[in-house]
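Thread: "does anyone have the structure for this chain?"

Original post by V.I.:
We have the sequence but no experimental structure in hand. Need at least a predicted one for the grant figures.
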Amino acid sequence: MSQPLEILNKYWGFQTFRPMQDEIVDSVLAGHDTLALLPTGGGKSVCFQVPALCKEGLCLVVSPLIALMRDQVEQLRAKGIRAEALYSGMSRRQIDTILDNCRFGDVKFLYVSPERLKTELFLARSEDMNISLLAIDEAHCISQWGYDFRPPYLEIAEFRQRLPEGVPVIALTATATEEVQSDIMERLEFRGKNAFRKSFARDNLSYSVRVTDDKEGKLVEILKKVPGTAVVYARTRKRCQDIAQWLRRQGIQADYYHAGLHPDSRATKQEDWIKNRCRVIVATNAFGMGIDKPDVRVVAHLDIPDTPEAYYQEAGRAGRDGKKAFAVIIIDENDPKKAIERIEKNFPTLNEMRHVYQCLANHYKLAIGSGEFNSFDFDLPNFSKKYGLNPLLAYNSVKKLAEEGYFELSESFHEPSKVNIKVDNRRLYEFRLFSSDYDAIIQALLRFYGGELFGNYKRISESNLATALETSPDTVAKILRTLQQMEILDYDERKDMPQLTYLESRHNASNLPIDVKRYEERKELIIGKAQAMADYTTNDKECRTRQLLAYFGEEYERCGVCDVCVSEKKISTEKLKQIRHDILLLLRSGQREAKNLHDALPTSVDIATFAEIVREMAEDGQVRLEDGMVTAMGK
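Reply from O.Q.:
Generated one for you, tokens below.
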């Protein structure tokens, strides 16, 4: 078995682990079930990737987010580590090929959504996989007390029972209250409680709330005061675009980012920001997932985040380099009330959800009992218009039905086309001899993408093939579809739309078995979290860091750098000046006993603070303190 530091240095180029990473890695390698709580940017992935590379066999990673799966797979491949991912929108044959490679190939990491664990195909193939570690990312999703509970996560414990005895599980999350931590370990059937938790405190991060009736003006003021890269979060796509344009008019280099942009545009904007060619990115809250940019100096929110967990993660994208950074929420006086009302509207009635469920079945032409694990493009505006639905109601209904485990809904993402040649070399050669019309494109495929097309799905570009063949991308796609119909290859066309995947066969909408009690409990819980976030923005008496950490069950005195603490310091400085002035004024009449002097002060101050002030004045040469008596110098 390889040594952890050797692996860390070989693939990541680091000589040492970050604080607590080594303890977590050692725990996993010792075969212990392990819960790792590390703040955003704390290096959670290393905590399971290093021990997995130390061990023989496959690491199965359960993750709820397609974007994070794809990012981590790409990062591992860039290091020369074989990794695959299964997610909604893939063809049955593509899934089949990946699972076979995990059984018989050299795949080291397989990323799957929790829904995948209960499919017959996966369960059958996993029996032949040499799984040595089970990693659960975003583990708070397993707890009904978490802010992003997903019922399919409850299936993980049942799947775990299929693994050989002794295969450890590592659960990872950036945010979890004490209640959620206990729930995670219980639901994953930990063999003994074993949690590693790094403090949620970020000494270099200054939290603040600014109340104003001119949000744009306050944002510009902050960005002009604090140089460096910034992320500005806004709730809607149009708002992102408008704010970016406003900032540019104020002379601040800015751009906008949201899931509705063309994939190439999103990639360019993200790269420009990462490479500091763009200073400020104005984005919806999906931006930043999986992006490790250390030098962000400001994270600003123009709307109150839905939960303290979400805010902690988003704000935590600032100052990962350890240098001073700022997280600020800019609100008007009505925003806290509007935030609660917005969350309440996110919960449709049961009849509204059943109606939307029926409309989806009609839209995709699904009969009762069909559709399990079928994926479809989900065009919300078109769907809403077709069935006369309020788009927000339709979206919230689909989201809640997804949370109940009926669907998996991915946000819009770009998935390039892929090709896999289904026949062997001999059969392909024969086909080319007798089907010369297709020889040119097959030759181009082999020249561009090589022999790996026979064993794996390779990403292709219709545009590049079209250029080589002096034709159009549409013509290339048409030929590839024909070759697929002839069963020469499998052509998985590009996807740019959100994907809606049915996780269960279609139900009769009128009898849709929604867990009403759990739904109401979730509603109450989420509204409570929204209230906690609203309270955070209105409480200007208690240290911001202390407020956030108390929510996560961590005791903390005060940070000294948030807006509340800084305000207190300013008051203390003014008060200190006044007390010093009063002391010298009282001493004009001559020497006084310290206690008598304290009692005579017109400005209220406790005895300990008074004693410290007198000591400092003595060190400055303003007074002399001797035998409990205080004398002004020169008197």
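V.I.: this helps a lot. The chain has a mean pLDDT of 90.
O.Q.: and The radius of gyration is 30 Å.
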